[in-house]
């Protein structure tokens, strides 16, 4: 039974970064709870413990001591960045680490980047307490910049937080070799995209220059191929054979 420790950064008297009407402590808790729920919905063979499940104050030592005493197999600390940049990055300890620490982080990074259209800021190392003091493989993720308008607008979307959480859940599952529950596919079920902008181009091929027909707000299409990278953006392939942008500015992805 794999033991997963989810650590929503900050909380209680420590709001973390604050900007654009958002608080880091609120966002990290939402992402962590969604990650927990996806793991429990789609995978088996694990147990999950969280440093907090509500807006409570937890010191850094309380978090790592709790994970260490529980005997966690993977420590995942979830944060939102600040400082005027843009994009996603993650960290492991900048000292001596196990091979699993590196492998686990590589899998998590790849799965998060499959789900989001944040700029990829890369895989980094740092001397953070939760990475240094955890006795198991540990990673700290930075999911967009709260003080950058473009990133903040994405973080204001609950559907976008779902995508971030799905990336975390799938990455953790891959790292620990969790088995999918019977009947659970890519994101759990059949995917669909709904157009949420007045009009939108579709494409004949996975090429932004190969425009096909315009679709309209409210139209829903069945996804044949999940989100994949095309140039500087991402697309879905539709059951019809056409392609459509995966940008959450223009479409909403959901399953049923």
TrEMBL record:
<keyword id="KW-0378">Hydrolase</keyword>
<dbReference type="InterPro" id="IPR050695">
    <property type="entry name" value="N-acetylmuramoyl_amidase_3"/>
</dbReference>
<dbReference type="Pfam" id="PF19087">
    <property type="entry name" value="DUF5776"/>
</dbReference>
<dbReference type="InterPro" id="IPR002508">
    <property type="entry name" value="MurNAc-LAA_cat"/>
</dbReference>
<dbReference type="InterPro" id="IPR044081">
    <property type="entry name" value="DUF5776"/>
</dbReference>
<protein>
    <submittedName>
        <fullName>N-acetylmuramoyl-L-alanine amidase</fullName>
        <ecNumber>3.5.1.28</ecNumber>
    </submittedName>
</protein>
<dbReference type="Pfam" id="PF01520">
    <property type="entry name" value="Amidase_3"/>
</dbReference>
<dbReference type="GO" id="GO:0008745">
    <property type="term" value="F:N-acetylmuramoyl-L-alanine amidase activity"/>
</dbReference>
<feature type="domain" description="MurNAc-LAA">
    <location>
        <begin position="64"/>
        <end position="173"/>
    </location>
</feature>
